[in-house]
Amino acid sequence: MASVICTLRDHQDDVNWCAFSANLLATCSGDKTLRIYDAEDFSELPFSPLTGHGYSVHCCCFSPCGQFLISCSTDATTVIWSMATGDIEAVLEHPGRSPVRICALSPDSFHLVSGASDGTLALWDFPSKRLLRTGGVSDTTMVACSFSPCSQMFMTGSTYGDLRLWDLDLNQLLAEKNAHDLGVSCCSFAPSILSSSQVVQFRLASCGQDCHLKIWVINKFTPGGFKMVLLHTLTGQTAPVLCCGYSSDGQLLVSGSVDKSIKVYDANKAVLLHTLNHHERYVTACSFHPTSPLVATGSMDKTVNIWRLEDGCSGEEREQIHKNHTTKRKATAGRSKLLVADWSERDVSEWLVEEGLEGLVDKFKANNIDGTELLSLTKETLASELGIESVGLRGKLLRKVEELKSDSMCSGIPDEFLCPITRELMREPVIAADGYSYEREAIESWIHTKNRSSPMTNLPLLTTLLTPNHTLKMAISRWQDSQYACSDLVHLFF
Q1: Would you call 399 helix, strand, or coil by DSSP?
Q2: What is the largest CA-CA distance in the chain?
Q3: Rounded distance, CA 491 to CA 321, Å?
Q4: Is residue 449 classed as helix, strand or coil in its secondary structure?
Q5: What digits encode the pLDDT tens for the residues 377-422?
Q6: Most C-beta atoms within 10 A of its C-beta, which of 44, 214, 268, 383?
Q7: Is pTM beyond 0.85 here?
Q8: CB of 432 closer than 8 Å to CB of 421
């Protein structure tokens, strides 16, 4: 079941977009403002509303670290705001001064894309706020954009009804020209990646004026080339679908429609889970909280509703699930399932036992096989270096290793949880003077050896003061716990 826990009534015009960070909610409106709320009690922050735009604000998104908010407007600008003070950090004027309808930031925070009413795209270097290149499609309006989870490409949608995949040089990688009859409204990449030796697979949701929500598979082949295949067409809404988005774990998909309804689906099975009805006019915006079972929806009725989703389990069932996952965590104590390359020799031994390969433990110990060595094993090294003569046993072990690799890719760590310096999961995240979060040990070492420059901007750090990022640390802890809960669902689907 799902229930409204809060209704925000501060905007004076249509709500066009809403976005969550780990601890904030941002909304934007035709009233030219953005409003910022605490994501725990939904009280408005002291510096809200933000009033830097001259016309309707169409879209907003947070940087992965949550330190910045990006918004775009009919006034032909994309504005970057500090979420520490509410101040404007930069104003990016779109080439050609056309109204900017959509903006998106890459998961690695290196690139920002803005799309305009004249069909143009502008690609910006986010750390330096410098325009890199422009491109686009003539005689249409860009209304949708989403970066892939790898940050190396992005999808756009337009009023033509087409979906186009671009690389960072603004080369078109593929085009689905009739994705939605009468026009695309929104698109969103799923956060996970599935990889094999021959193909890397992404998932994308899109919605449009044809009243459909669609789920696509995008295959990137190792020799080169892309292919886009329609996987599901969801027809649960009876009018144009205006917005859609995935949950941070990729398990749920939400959409909002002109029929005033919100639909929540199991993204893997394409099964309807919830129908939410509380808005009085078109639902124009929807967003999942990254770590809590919350959904924000915005509407042309000028309100934003906050919904809490329940899993449908009884208290007793939920307690049993918790006990099961606690047992699993204890069984894997000292070993991170997500960072296989960091496993110790003991971690590898525990994994072998769990997979029914305890007969290989002594051989692995004798050869000092840790996580890095495990991932690099081949048929040849198993036979010649480890002396495993059984072809069947070698094959079983290699299949288990491939499953391990696939699991790690499928449940990839959100980029905002990785230290920009080490690219490893942060344990003690701190905020530096440049506004970015780093692993404490890594940034302290950087400061001592790099003349106090920012790892992200290369500009001097005004101070070496480091502030603990308790919110991010809590989000990482919750996400780690959630991986055990969602891993079984991922296996069922893939």
Answers
A1: helix
A2: 74
A3: 17
A4: helix
A5: 888 888 888 888 888 888 888 888 877 765 554 445 777 788 888 8
A6: 214
A7: no
A8: no
Strand 111-116 and strand 100-105: the pairing is antiparallel
Report how far residue 74's alpha carbon sits from residue 17's, in angstroms, rounded to the nearest whole number.
14
Each residue's pLDDT tens digit, 165-202: 999 999 999 999 999 998 999 999 998 888 776 788 99
DSSP, residue by residue, 316-376: HHHHHHHHHHHHHHHHTTT--SS-GGG--HHHHHHHHHHTT-GGGHHHHHHTT--HHHHHT
User: How buried is residue 375: exposed, middle or buried, by Cβ count under 10 Å (0-12/13-18/19+)?
Assistant: middle
pLDDT in tens, 285-311: 999 998 889 999 999 999 999 999 975
Burial of 332 (0-12, 13-18, 19+ CB in 10 A): middle
Alpha-helix residue ranges (DSSP H) falling in 210-280: none
Name, in order, each residue with C-beta under 8 angstroms of 1's C-beta and a sequence gap of 6 or more. Answer: 274, 310, 312
CA pair distance 241, 14, nearest whole angstrom? 16
The token duo for 44 is 């408005």
Contact 229, 216 (CB under 8 A): yes
Alpha carbon distances (Å) from 494 to 216, 358, 408, 487: 15, 26, 13, 11
How many residues does the structure list for the chain? 494
The 3-state DSSP class for residue 435 equals: coil
d(CA 115, CA 135): 10
Tokens found for residue 426: 């942060």
Distance (Å, rounded) from C-alpha 323 to C-alpha 286? 33
Residue 278: φ, ψ to 5°: -155, -20
